[in-house]
Amino acid sequence: MDGIPAYNYLSSPKGWKSWLLTRDHKRIGLMYLFAIMFFFLVGGIFALMIRIQLLTPNQALVKAETYNQLFTLHGAVMIFLFIIPSIPASLGNFVLPQLLGAKDVAFPRLNLASWYIYVVGALFLMYSIFTGAADTGWTFYTPYSTQTTTSVIATTLGVFILGFSSIFTGLNFIVTIHKLRAPGMTWFSMPLFCWALYATGIIQILATPVLGITLVLLILERLFGIGIFDPAMGGDPVLYQHFFWFYSHPAVYIMILPGMGIISETISVFSHKKIFGYKAIAFSSLGIAFVSFMVWGHHMFTSGQSELAAMIFSFLTFLVGIPSGIKVFNWLATMYKGSISLAAPMIYTLMFLILFTIGGLTGIVLGALSVNVHMHGTYFVVAHFHYVMMGGTVMAFLAGLHYWWPKIWGRLYSEFWARVGALLTFIGFNMTFFTQFILGAKGMPRRYSTYLDQYQPLHGFSSIGSFILGAGFVVMAGYLIYSLFRGKPAGNNPWGGLTLEWTTTSPPPPENFLETPKITHGPYDYDKVIADNG
Amino acid sequence: MKDNGNLFLPPGHSTIAPGTDALFDFIYYTSIVFFAIVVFAIVYSVWRFRRRKKTGLTSGVAHSTTLEILWTAIPTILVLIVFAWGFKGYLRLYIIPKDALEIKVTGQRWFWSFDYPEGATSVNDLVVPVGKPVKLLMSSKDVIHSFFVPSFRIKMDVLPNRYTMTWFEATDTGAYDLFCTEYCGAKHSSMIGKVRVVGEREYAQWLESSSRAGEGMSVEDYGAKLYAQKACITCHSVDGKASTGPTFRGLFGEQVKLEGGGTAIADENYLRESILNPQTRIALGYQPVMPTFQGVLKDKQIDALIAYIKSLKESGSK
């Protein structure tokens, strides 16, 4: 073999059955990775169709009804099938037990079950496309969602099922972190990615059931007209919004916290420097998880809730922003006096820092009550959450993907092409979405299939940016796939990392470690240890 | 205060706008400073501490209570200022002047209608006097809509089960965009209009003339005007193309296939019924989404619309 260890989780055991019935967290993580990358592609195609439509003010591509289905599908697929499971279920699954020095997660069968549940949920969503995809927006606001003739039930049922997959993953990780740390690994010598997944797990378990209940109520409302959201029967459509955001705001942190965890790893490894403010970063994750449950009302500043409620939600919204700021400052301080390498994972990490900072700062604009009234429901909001979710989570996901890619496959990709891809992505992303801050502030509402002529130049520029962004991802897909066949063998530890996954072979054996790892140093002790690529 | 807008915000034309814009600017410039610090820190570190060859051990300094307190406290103080400032501005939106002129706003798919205290009505065209506070009492007849005038920096959701309120005082005459910003279905992006701010005198004239609308016009011409004014145009074409609703071209007198079987002749009574009780007999292949125009259109106006639809029968073939 060409430098790839013969005994590894990819090659043994063999046969398709050994994959579909596997209990190995690495294989399950990989199956998740394929699934979410597929849906990232699907959601991305929807996004490009949206941007083509908006090239001109008057329906360049499809009619209004179809456009409304497109942006609903883009949102639903990207959120429920890509970004929520993205980091935890794929990369988290793959590395969490290795970071802890464990053989597997606490409940391997449950882990496999959550993948199958994910697939069933995904099939419901795909099925809905062929039966008249929902046109409600991914938020399914009532009373529109109880009146439209599109297949809201298939879509929401799919999301309901996906929720269980998310809950099981969160539960599994929490128990794994509690019970399966290698001998000698204390809570405060865990890598920070584990803390992030732990905080994420708490939100997944506590918030997701509320979404499930909400969607069941919506389905009952549609099927039997129970009237809980129907004003004609004494119900209240705004109640739906409260229920929905009670999940969906914490869910934003389900999406971003794991990304922050990855950044805490990569910034330290590629700066070759002890992470600055370990405890501040760890506790800020828990702080975010806790406060995130109490800010849902900031999605509803113009929905007629009381001024007192608006005031409290605005206040808490500003508080929940502080821990994110603390993290950014600690990451920056980590780079100080380091030995910084600009390998691909670090480039994506720096992109994360820049884009997430813009996302965070524009969040302050939206948290300020009087300014929010102007910006709410416009492209400013669209730009803000794309900076946080795509500029934040997706960039962190890509940082993690490039960071652990050699561990997953045992091979290295081309650093040159990685830079080309990252540059296109960065330019394309900012062209697409920074433009939308301006569009939104100028008054352009979201979810419009047509628009007034005055917005055309900015929309056109944004669309061109999205094509460049798409090209960046095509380049990335190209060199990553190429590396699977022609990539140079990576060795155990190509980046000189100090966490436990780098002590085993690449790809690792099915049981991760041939003998139980001994903890001889902390995960970030770059002041004491130099790791070789053995 | 005259305001020409900036890179982000459009020019403001209400008494609310300067306060909102000042806070936006405060956040904007503070953010630029913070962003510059972050970018500088990255560029400086990446250059100054770039990896030269094989890496050695690095500094183990990884904690500083002073720094942690500093970069927690400074942003906290800043955001608390923003919070208090924002809340103060928000309250201004809720404290409606007592002498405000009250206009009833009704949102329905997919148009806005306005009822003025003097009895006048308009669709997608809100006419208000300059320099006078205007209170909007809003409700929806179907799903949730949201009333947004970017130039005034105001927005408020319009709900089916209760009234919501907002107010503004326009500072300059002109016509300003009005958008629906809560997604409401197929023609959401056509649920737009204008707020026309006019002088006191002009406003009085407009109120007066609206009660005499249609005078001195042929009934078909009046119908054609109403077709655009009352937003029929959003869903019904006059060039033969099907849209959200059937086209008006060649409609009159035709046999219409109905949802659920059966047919109807598109005569005066069918058209009148379709305007006032649109859900009764739906043309085959269309969604039952048309709102009722009961209360929006007067009898005379319905007559004129029917006359206009009639006139579209002769003037062209399919």
What does this protein structure show overall?
The complex is a heterodimer of chains A (534) and B (318). Chain A is mostly helical. Chain A has one domain (16-503): Cytochrome c oxidase-like, subunit I domain (Cytochrome C Oxidase, Chain A). Chain A is 67% helix and 0% strand. Chain A has 15 helices and no strands. Chain A has helices spanning 16-20, 25-53, 64-100, 108-130, 144-147, 152-179, 192-224, 237-271, 278-291, 307-335, 344-367, 369-375, 379-409, 415-441, 456-486. In chain A, helix 3 runs antiparallel to helix 7 (192-224) and helix 11 runs parallel beside helix 14 (415-441). The longest helix of chain A has 37 residues, at 64-100. The mean pLDDT of chain A is 94. The mean pLDDT of chain B is 89. Chain B starts with 16 loop residues before the first helix and ends with a helix. Chain B has a 5-stranded mixed sheet, with no helix packed on it. Chain B has a 5-stranded mixed sheet with strand order 4-10-9-6-7. In chain B, 35% of the residues lie in helices and 20% in strands. In chain B, strand 11 (255-257) and strand 12 form a beta hairpin.
Salient structural properties:
heterodimer, A: 534 residues, Cytochrome C Oxidase, Chain A, 0% strand
Q: What is the number of domains of chain A?
A: 1
Helix content of chain B: 25-40%
Given the C-alpha coordinates, what overall shape of chain B results?
elongated
Distance between the termini of chain A: 17 Å
* Average of pLDDT of chain A: 94
Round the Cα radius of gyration of chain A to an integer and report it.
23 Å
Low confidence ranges of chain B: none
Fraction of residues in H or I helices of chain A: 55-70%
- Taken from the alpha-carbon principal axes, the silhouette of chain A is globular
**How far is the N terminus from the C terminus of chain B?**
55 Å
In terms of quaternary structure, the protein is heterodimer
Beta-strand residue fraction of chain A: under 5%
Number of helices, counting only DSSP H or I runs of 4 residues or more of chain B? 6
Radius of gyration of chain B, rounded? 28 Å
Could you give the order of the helices and strands of chain A? HHHHHHHHHHHHHHH
Largest sheet of chain A: none
Secondary-structure-based class of chain B equals alpha+beta
The percent range for strand residues of chain B is 15-25%
* Low-pLDDT regions of chain A: none
Class of chain A, according to the CATH hierarchy?
A: Mainly Alpha
